[in-house]
Amino acid sequence: MKGKNCVAIACDLRFGVQAQTISTDFKRVFELGPHLYIGLPGLATDTQTVLQRLQFRIKMYEMREGRRLKPHTLMAMMQNLLYERRFGPYFVEPVIAGLDPNTKEPYICALDLIGCACEPADFVVSGTCSESLYGMCETTWQEDMEPEDLFECISQSLVNAFDRDALSGWGAVVHIIEQDKVTTRTLKCRQD
Amino acid sequence: MARRYDSKTTIFSPEGRLYQVEYAMEAIGHAGTCLGILANDGIVLAAERRNTNKLLDDVFLSDKIYKIDEDMACCVAGITSDANVLTNELRAIAQRHTLQFGEPIPCEQLIMRLCDIKQAYTQTGGKRPFGVSILYMGWDNRHGYQLYQSDPSGNYSGWKATCIGNSSAAAVSILKQEYKVGETDLHEALLLALKVMSKTLDMTKLNAEKLELATLVRKDGHTEIIVKPCGRGAEADQGARGAGGGGRSFQAGQVHSQYKQA
């Protein structure tokens, strides 16, 4: 979600195979830079592989260019990475949140599994309960929220959406990315 | 006499020499000096920057010293375009290892892989060898701080202190006398590097703009590689002040004047 000079990104912690829960601390939001986070919900093995391949590309980019990756460039990189597997795709639908390294402009975007990106002005959602998430975010999101309000908004949207979904839940991790710091909070909710 | 045997890399001479490889090393002998010193608590690389034309745009802070991976950096001497190709390959090799094994590549393995590529250009393909010698500094959790040198033949070796490029023989002989094995810490290594560079460089006095310095130290479980492009104003001062080695601050000008008094 976008806020005033800040962005927030959050994920749940459940890792399961349909009805069976395998792990309750599977994080799917990763830090790729001081103010750049990516969420990779979907097939867990693809979450891991896409992250590793992405880190490879980002390392090469940052060493060659001598500067940090911009969120917009990360989106382009993800598009390319995913479309390379157009006919045998990675089953992840990434979500990117970050601040531009120079202008500190908030940025969010979501991609589908074969690399179609969209960069809306308000919020992006992805995962098994994405329909509920759309509903929750639509009602609670407002423009230019301060970091504290943004935290409340994103937490409530996420938790209430995944509480109704059998395949998501078991707690949440929320990152609030501001210009000078990133605050990470772990939420404990219905443990089921 | 050597003429007949020096046009192709794949041919030995009657005396058992590979002339193309030797000519490549000749090319490096004319390049800007690079010096590396292994200290107890870190590693120093110093390089002579040859392109100091004031019209040059400073897009990249460093044109001799490159970061290869989180725990490794290198300094090149020789044909710059060849060096760019090799450093790119070094970075790709390191990342491919991390992708496959989930951990940073050990220093010697990285150098070994690159040297195998360099060796191929001395035996097959009909292409000339790379006209670059490289000094590597790195840390890994098995052998700690390491300093290596590789040359166009694809040969590499580990060093405590060494020099490549112009006047390297003179520099190595000074290092032989002055370097104290096991007793040099990072600050002393920096001073020694400056001393050797000033004695062997072309210019009569050591100008901060002509020198690039880099240090590698381990701090709190991660590696800090600081490349100091000396003489580039505020950035250089900031970088210089961020030096490792027990919290002592280092500024190129300050150390230079210390040496002068010594």
From TrEMBL, chain A:
Primary site of residence: nucleus
InterPro entries per the UniProt record, alphabetical: Ntn_hydrolases_N, Proteasome_beta_3, Proteasome_sua/b, Proteasome_suB-type
Domain of life (superkingdom): Eukaryota
Any single GO CC term annotated in Swiss-Prot or TrEMBL for this entry: proteasome core complex, beta-subunit complex
Pfam family, one: Proteasome
Protein's cellular compartments: Nucleus
GO biological process terms held by the UniProt record: proteasome-mediated ubiquitin-dependent protein catabolic process
Keywords: Cytoplasm, Nucleus, Proteasome
Function, as annotated: Non-catalytic component of the proteasome, a multicatalytic proteinase complex which is characterized by its ability to cleave peptides with Arg, Phe, Tyr, Leu, and Glu adjacent to the leaving group at neutral or slightly basic pH. The proteasome has an ATP-dependent proteolytic activity.
Xref: PANTHER family: METALLOPROTEASE TLDD, PROTEASOME SUBUNIT BETA TYPE-3
Assembly with partners or alone: The 26S proteasome consists of a 20S proteasome core and two 19S regulatory subunits. The 20S proteasome core is composed of 28 subunits that are arranged in four stacked rings, resulting in a barrel-shaped structure. The two end rings are each formed by seven alpha subunits, and the two central rings are each formed by seven beta subunits. The catalytic chamber with the active sites is on the inside of the barrel.
Name listed for the protein in its UniProt record: Proteasome subunit beta type-3
Originating organism: Scylla paramamosain
UniProtKB/TrEMBL annotation, chain B:
SMART domains the record matches: Proteasome_A_N
PROSITE patterns: PROTEASOME_ALPHA_1 (PS00388), PROTEASOME_ALPHA_2 (PS51475), PROTEASOME_BETA_1 (PS00854)
Region (Disordered): 237-262
GO cellular component, one term: proteasome core complex, alpha-subunit complex
Coiled coil (UniProt feature): none
Pfam families documented for this protein: Proteasome, Proteasome_A_N
Compartmental location: Cytoplasm; Nucleus
Major site of localization recorded for this protein: cytoplasm
SUPFAM superfamilies registered for this protein in UniProt: N-terminal nucleophile aminohydrolases (Ntn hydrolases)
Domain of life: Eukaryota
Presence of the UniProt keyword ATP-binding in the record: no
NCBIfam families attached to this UniProt entry: PRK03996.1
Function per UniProt: The proteasome is a multicatalytic proteinase complex which is characterized by its ability to cleave peptides with Arg, Phe, Tyr, Leu, and Glu adjacent to the leaving group at neutral or slightly basic pH. The proteasome has an ATP-dependent proteolytic activity.
Family: Belongs to the peptidase T1A family.
Assembly mode: The 20S proteasome core is composed of 28 subunits that are arranged in four stacked rings, resulting in a barrel-shaped structure. The two end rings are each formed by seven alpha subunits, and the two central rings are each formed by seven beta subunits.
Name this polypeptide is given: Proteasome subunit alpha type
Annotated source species: Scylla paramamosain
